[in-house]
């Protein structure tokens, strides 16, 4: 299980680095000494375990990429902040990140509740956001938001197929939390 989590976090981190290569603003590149990637993670609160895995994976990926010469010949600068697993805090952090003079080329955001709350800020600022979110409605009405998670319907179908084919379970009940992600998965 830990190996799967590590592989997932590594894949996310690698995706973040690759997406940051899509910079089409050479003026911004010249103004900063590196390629900035900001991440709003849940380092404390209910999502802390996943947030700390993501932090370690992002740091490892950036360290390896920088050791190999960086991205487009520039050092990757990783800016990690803690949403405390609270959507309002995520929005406050996103507003600060986008108000800074050294805006990131990419914002990575974690957890459905945080990503959904931050999405309007990212869209309004025309800043690319890459989200670890399974909420059905994350990608509705977006131009700058991308998801790195299975769509909930696909995840639900796979789980149902596994329960039927591998465990011979044909009847079951569903208990779920009252959150956007849980409702999407239901």
Characterize the structure shown.
This protein has a five-stranded parallel sheet with strand order 2-1-3-4-5, sandwiched between helices. The chain is an alpha/beta fold and 186 residues long. 49% of the residues lie in helices and 15% in strands. The chain starts with a helix and ends with a helix. Helix 5 (112-124) links the parallel strand 3 and strand 4.
Question: Could you write a compact summary of the structure shown?
Answer:
The chain is an alpha/beta fold and 186 residues long. It is built from 7 helices and 5 strands; from the N terminus they run ααβαβαβαββαα.
Mean pLDDT: 83
Strand content: 15-25%
Oligomer: single chain
| Strand order, sheet with most strands | 2-1-3-4-5
Determine Rg (CA atoms, Å).
18 Å
Helix content: 40-55%
- Per DSSP E runs of 2 or more residues, the count of β-strands stands at 5
Task: Kindly name the structural category.
Answer: alpha/beta
Shape: globular
Report the span from N to C terminus: 23 Å
Low-confidence stretches: 1-11, 27-31
Total DSSP helices = 7
Write the layout of secondary structure elements.
Elements: H1 2-20, H2 26-31, E1 34-41, H3 48-67, E2 75-82, H4 87-99, E3 106-110, H5 112-124, E4 129-132, E5 145-147, H6 152-165, H7 180-185
Parallel strand pairs: 1-2, 1-3, 3-4, 4-5
Helix pairs in contact: 1-3, 4-5
From the structure above, extract its key features:
five-stranded parallel sheet; 186 residues; 49% helix; alpha/beta; disordered N terminus
């Amino acid at each position: 299980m830990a190996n799967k989590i590590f592989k997932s976090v590594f894949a996310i981190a690698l995706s973040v680095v690759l997406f940051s290569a899509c910079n089409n603003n050479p003026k911004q590149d010249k103004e900063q000494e590196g390629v900035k990637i900001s991440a709003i993670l849940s380092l404390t609160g209910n999502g802390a375990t996943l947030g700390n895995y993501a932090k370690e994976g992002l740091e490892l990926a950036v360290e390896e990429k920088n050791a190999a010469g960086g991205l487009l010949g520039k050092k990757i600068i990783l800016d990690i902040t803690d949403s405390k697993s609270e959507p309002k805090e995520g929005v406050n952090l996103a507003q600060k990140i986008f108000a800074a003079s050294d805006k990131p080329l990419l914002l990575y955001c974690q957890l459905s509740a945080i990503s959904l709350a931050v999405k309007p800020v990212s869209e309004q600022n025309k800043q690319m956001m890459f989200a670890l979110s399974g909420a059905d409605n994350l990608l509705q009405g977006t131009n700058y938001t991308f998801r790195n998670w299975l769509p909930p319907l696909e995840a639900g179908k796979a789980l149902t197929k596994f329960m039927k084919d591998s465990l011979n379970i044909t009847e079951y009940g569903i208990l779920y939390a009252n959150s956007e992600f849980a409702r999407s998965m239901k």
